[in-house]
Amino acid sequence: MRFVNALLARNSDHETIDDDSGALLSLSRHEYFRRWTTRLLFILDLISLALVLAHSSGIVMLIAGMIQGLFVPGWSVVRRLKISSVALEVGLVLATSLALVMIYAQILITIDFWHLWAAQIFWGLFFTLVLALDEMEWRPDSRLKFHISVK
Questions:
Q1: Under a CB-based contact definition with an 8 Å cutoff, are residues 93 and 147 in contact?
Q2: pTM (2 decimals)?
Q3: What is the 3-state secondary structure (H, E, C) of the chain?
Q4: Which tens digit of pLDDT belongs to each residue from 109-140?
Q5: What residues form DSSP beta bridges with 139?
Q6: In degrees, to the nearest 5, what angle opens at C-alpha 102 toward C-alphas 122 and 91?
Q7: Helices 116-137 and 59-78: crossing angle, nearest 10°?
Q8: What is the pLDDT of residue 100?
Q9: CA dihedral (64, 67, 73, 75) positive or negative
Q10: Measured between alpha carbons, how far is 83 from 9 in angstroms, rounded to an integer?
């Protein structure tokens, strides 16, 4: 509940909260948005992957698949850019997602592997792993951190 209260607070640009590990985090509202978006897309990706594995069809599968295809690949790439404009970030997420989906489809056609069920499982597993690594990255107690420094 502390995260929700801090997320909805409108009186300052930065909030200091207690993490589950007891460490104090000072993050902007935009970083809270990034964190919760990553979590939401991770859960949605797991739901979509479960629906594919269950050979489900219908409106739920259609909506989950569309959201997964339009947001998950782009968010996995654009999140790392840390753009300060939300509108620009959303536009880049959609454009990057559509570009990655088209490249993936073209690769599948080129190698003559147009088995959509297997392709969706691979796609879902890959981006579930990417989003899980993104979620682990922000935690101060995480053992797995990816930092690239250019010197």
A1: no
A2: 0.68
A3: CHHHHHHHCCCCCEEEEECCCCCEEEEEHHHHHHHHHHHHHHHHHHHHHHHHHCCCCCHHHHHHHHHHHHHHHHHHHHHHHCCCCHHHHHHHHHHHHHHHHHHHHHHHHHCCCCCHHHHHHHHHHHHHHHHHHHHHHCCCCCCCCCCCCCC
A4: 999 888 888 888 998 899 888 888 877 765 55
A5: none
A6: 105
A7: 50
A8: 94
A9: negative
A10: 21
Residue carrying structure tokens 């850019």: 81
Q: Which residues have CB under 8 Å from 135's CB, separation 6+? A: 35, 38, 39, 42
Are the C-beta atoms of residues 68 and 45 closer than 8 Å to each other?
A: yes
CB atoms within 10 A of CB 87: 8
C-alpha of 126 from chain center = 11
Note the residue count of the chain: 151
Positive or negative CA dihedral for 144, 73, 102, 125? positive
- Mean confidence (pLDDT) of the chain: 77
Sequence-ordered list of residues with C-beta below 8 angstroms from that of 86, at least 6 positions apart, any chain: 30, 33
What's the maximum distance between 2 C-alpha atoms anywhere in the chain? 56
